Amino acid sequence: MKQKVSAIIVPARIFLPIRVEWIEHDLDFRQKLVKGNVETINGRGWHVLLNDEAKFLPLPLNPRAEVLIREAGLQIEDTVSGDAVFLGHAINGEDTCVPGHLLTMAERLFETRLAA
Question: Of 14, 77, 97, 100, whose CB neighbour count within 10 A is largest?
């Protein structure tokens, strides 16, 4: 059994708080978090899980996740919709805990305190 990893959960609904949660490596669990099939956008040492059908359902826009993705150095062309799950990844591609620099960045951008 694999260990759980810490993730930043960024809900699309602005009134819901951004939080850190320990999540399982289980695909079904991750699909529940994003409310559907999982799509991944990769950054350097991190990735974000999104619902791959968010535009077609349609799921609400997620400006906080979009800002975090862009501030972390990725230039994306599309808007981000639905809940977002930020994780770290190792060189071999395995999931790891969300990197500390993303936690710090999220805290500063959204004026919140996140604990891993």
Answer: 97
Q: Which letter does DSSP use for residue 110 in this model? A: H
Q: Would you call 7 helix, strand, or coil by DSSP?
A: strand
Instruction: Identify the residue whose tokens are 């190792």.
Output: 90
CA 88 to chain centre: 10
Q: State pLDDT tens for residues 43-80.
A: 999 999 999 998 888 899 999 999 999 999 999 888 99
In three state form, how does the secondary structure of 79-115 look?
CCECCEEEEEECCCCCEECCCHHHHHHHHHHHCCCCC
pTM over cut 0.90? yes
- Per-residue CA distances from 116 to 2, 6, 39 (Å): 18, 6, 24
